[in-house]
Amino acid sequence: MSVIHHAGRFTPDDRAASTWQYLPADVPAGCAGLDVRLSYERIGGILDLGCVAPDGWRGWSGGARDRFVITPNEATPGYLPGELEPGTWHVVLGLHRVPVQGVGYELTVTTGPTAPAPEAAPPPVAPPPPRRDLPAPMGLRWLAGDFHAHTRHSDGAHTIDALATLAAARGLDFIAVTDHNTISHHPHLAAAGARAGLTLIPGQEVTTDSGHANAFGDIGWIDFREPAQSWIDTVAARGGLLSINHPISGECSWRQRTSAPPVAEIWHSSWRDRRDGGPLSWWAVQDYAHVPIGGSDWHGLGVDSLPGSPTTWVACADGDVLDGLRAGRTSISAERNGPLLLRVGDELLVLGGEGTVLLSSAGAGRSCGGSGPTSPGRPGRTCSNRSTGSCSPCAANLRNLETPVSEESSLPCTMTICLSRSVCAG
To answer: Do domains 2-111 and 133-337 have the same CATH topology?
Structure first.
């Protein structure tokens, strides 16, 4: 067993020179384990934690942990188990926030026998609620899901099994597990999904100070330290899909200069005041270049919106969610049972639309009345729908249509948006 010790102080000049600092640790042949512990001055400072081995990236926990363990057979969630190749490893420290006075830190790396803390047993699985079957073109079926959720493999509070069980109990057919800057959760998704009875989509939230993006698909790790354009190019080359996350969301807003990724999280759970036209305005400024999706960004009970708030519906063939997303067949509602506007063939179809008005681009409106066809869905036509004062109002926007008319601040109820993209059988 050997112990390597690093200590020092990071200054604003260090942060300006490079976000990433690499502290070396020599690992001998036949090493039984690596145990890394970090402590630092937390008043005004935030340091992220990760690890790279001679053969490549081994994991990331950001600011969620101050210790991780890697052994040949198991590892702390967020890190990849496997043989510890001999040579110089590096603990990666991300200088997320460095105050004027700097951040003092101490890092200890111990090589030798060790083990991570055990994971909790899978929770019991509850029966799901009845399906909500929606009309769809021949050969397609609408599946309900959520494209943004976290587990203990990054900064989530719960295990993969706990997330899967909760999502299934809320009636979701799929949920994307998008832990920050790691894919250590990917090998566990199929089994956890099978136990809970839903599909867990492999994802990675590529996370930086200048914006976040979800990489969907079993496509390997995406290096968040590279320029954002390389994320888009790499994900596309590997057959995945990249989505801009919460493009308007305080310090986590999208500020990267890139070509347009194919997908964007237009409806993030932080969009609580639906009279705020910011997310739809951002989408309009992008000329509706992105397929719209929604995400709860779930981290834990009592912390965020629950999985499926909002719910993204994808019209799928043979249950292939990413293929349906790639084709742009999406609709988003506030909840799984919330109001929906679907485009099915040549018709716009409103479900649960009591108390809403469908508006044309010229401002002319018609009452939706409830559920059923509302009008032909002509290409390029502008539609939205606006509350007339019911207790569960909704507004809607089709991807190939324009932004809804802004809501008056005097509306008696919080507005609920429903976004939908054109659906075709092809």
So the answer is: no
Distance CA 210, CA 245 (A): 11
* Greater pLDDT, 247 or 365: 247
Three-state SS for 264-298 is: EEEEECCCCCCCCCHHHHHHHHCCCCCEEEEECCE
CB atoms within 10 A of CB 170: 21
For the segment 377-425, what is each residue's pLDDT rounded down to a tens digit? 544 333 333 332 222 223 333 332 333 333 332 222 223 345 554 443 3
Average pLDDT over residues 119-146: 93
Could you give the CA distance from residue 27 to residue 112 in angstroms, rounded to a whole number? 9
Under CATH, which architecture does the 133-337 domain have? Alpha-Beta Barrel (3.20)
State the pLDDT confidence band at 284, using cuts at 50, 70 and 90.
Answer: confident
Domain ranges across the chain: 2-111, 133-337, 341-419
State whether residue 229 is helix, strand or coil.
Answer: helix
What is the band of 359 on the pLDDT scale with cuts at 50, 70, 90? low
171-193 burial string, b = 16+ CB within 10 Å, else e?
bbbbbbbbbbbbbbbbebbeebb
Q: Which of 143, 138, 189 is nearest to 321 (CA)?
A: 143
pLDDT at 90: 98
Tell me the three state secondary structure of residue 169. helix
CATH of 2-111, one of 2.60.120.380, 2.60.40.10, 3.40.50.2300, 3.40.50.150: 2.60.120.380
Pick the closest to residue 122 from 166, 81, 59 (CA basis).
166
- Tell me what the pLDDT averaged over the chain comes to: 85
Query: How many Cα atoms within 13 Å fall on the side-chain side of residue 411?
Result: 24
Cα–Cα distance for residue pair 102/290, rounded to 1 Å: 40
Report which of 274, 307, 296 is spatially closest to residue 397, judged by C-alpha positions: 274
Q: What is the pLDDT of residues 92-110, one digit of tens each?
A: 999 999 999 999 999 999 9
Q: Is 378 exposed, middle or buried (0-12, 13-18, 19+ CB in 10 A)?
A: exposed
What value does the mean pLDDT take over residues 316-340? 94
